Amino acid sequence: MRSDNKMKTKWEQLELVQPNALKILRNSIVKNRVAHAYLFEGSKGTGKKEASLLFAKTLFCQDRIGYQPCYKCSNCRRIDSGNHPDIHLVEPSGLSIKKEQVQYLQAEFSKTGVESNKKLYIVNHIDKMTVSASNSLLKFLEEPGEGTYAILLTENIQRLLDTIISRCQVVSFRSLTTEQLIEKLVEKGLSTSDASILSHLTNSIDEAIELSEDEWFGLARKLVIQLYEVLTTRPQQALLFIHEKWISHFKEKEQAHIGLNLLMLLYRDLLTLQVGHESKIVYLHKLEDLKQQALQMTQQKVIAYIEVIMKAKNKLNSNMNVQLLMEQLVLDLQEG
Question: What pLDDT does residue 287 have?
Fold first, then answer.
């Protein structure tokens, strides 16, 4: 088993953000009705992998109390460190999970458990299986050995074979609310302001932390605020700003999406202030400036600006050239 799990999540912590999913898992243990195969489905960052490792501890813990693992015995510690011999974690090899990986699992599971009569395999991104790998896994699911358990993880349940879904107990993981994500990021050491902005760009704790540590993203935020200030105070210079500073930084489509999202959040903050919801603004460190600017624009104008940015985002999705798109966006915002 290999694991890159950074969070040593405890049952209570995950239950706060995924109460329904954890209730299903808890009941299956308490009632001694553990399924031979589970399918954890939900968007990125909802704790599916953490829950799979937590469930593994519950199954293998040497000193379990009810449904709660002890987190201290040798099995719990080895699951945390990723080296338990009877737990196998499968990740995509390159862009997909291949038939050979499933065949390796089958070979391993034909053997007796090294230290117990139980064996567990966890397959992450199950939707990335090749057709031949899916067929091999299906046979594996149809004929589970005694004491064999499977946990399959996916962000795209609609891509899975119905025959695979039907052989698993499906457990759905809901997306974190913005408030929950901000709270988690602040616990990880981010400022409330940074957490607020990042919570509107991603629903994944890990992705938010990666962005916060990325030098590219730090400069991207500064450039977005600079563009906003240019558009607000000296709009005639905005096109020059795009050519001299913006285009060279936001080169890729995904980067351009982040830039447009950050810019739209600034204008959305203006509208939020205008309707009297100061507690909901995102750019907390720009609050005083935004208050002044919110008084100087009509709601209709701010709404028009937001609509222009949303149209630009849609054009970006249709593969419009980024430079042409930004030039047109600036011209439209100047006219607004």
Answer: 94
